[in-house]
Fold this sequence. Notes:
The structure holds two protein chains of two kinds. Chain A is an all-beta fold. Chain A is about 0% helix and about 55% strand. Chain A contains no helices and eleven strands. In chain A, the strands form two sheets. In chain A, strands 2, 4, 5, 6, 9, 10 and 11 form a seven-stranded mixed beta sheet that branches. Chain A has a four-stranded antiparallel beta sheet with strand order 1-3-8-7, with no helix packed on it. In chain A, a hairpin with a 5-residue loop joins strand 4 and strand 5. Chain A is globular and about 40 Å long. By secondary structure, chain B is an all-beta fold. Chain B contains no helices and twelve strands. Chain B is globular and about 45 Å long. The mean pLDDT of chain B is about 95. The interface of A and B includes residues 42, 99 and 105 of A.
Amino acid sequence: DTAVSQTPKYLVTQMGNDKSIKCEQNLGHDTMYWYKQDSKKFLKIMFSYNNKELIINETVPNRFSPKSPDKAHLNLHINSLELGDSAVYFCASSQKAGLAGGRTGELFFGEGSRLTVL
Amino acid sequence: AQSVAQPEDQVNVAEGNPLTVKCTYSVSGNPYLFWYVQYPNRGLQFLLKYITGDNLVKGSYGFEAEFNKSQTSFHLKKPSALVSDSALYFCAVRDRTGGFKTIFGAGTRLFVKA
């Protein structure tokens, strides 16, 4: 069973369109994330949800809207796609890092969704 | 501001030779430290982490990392490189007081030549 799965793996679309990426984790983690990896492989956090509550919202255009229907799912919807949105989007999950129980919050990543905007 | 630096874009090493991928960090407090590996067209995979205690931590696939508090470094090492180790390696830090944000370095591409 795949721990963190995201769909679709590839999206090719025209500027101005709207698209969604879905993510599911079966690890029982409370926290999920969206990361963007650009063409230079730099990883930037976009959003994080802990138990369905938005806890990280980096400087991201409001065309990007995450939604977490439950703690095992985190979806990303992108409106009015632009050329600069082309990237690989990674979903990840973790336990919350903290002193109790030695939880260190290492991330478990999906395989990525490559978005190409033409 | 918190940051992670990986000073080398690429590291080249011959198979069988030892390898080192460098990482330094600038983070307040005592963060958790991680190494992740990314193979082509794949997601990142956790390799190892430093929590506390012994400065040399061992991880997956024969990798280890050396923590140096005075130099705020966490270099990734392997005694004998394999061609299959060729991949992109990311150093990362995370606040240990309950924070949610993991900050990644820019990545270092490791190329192991047969």
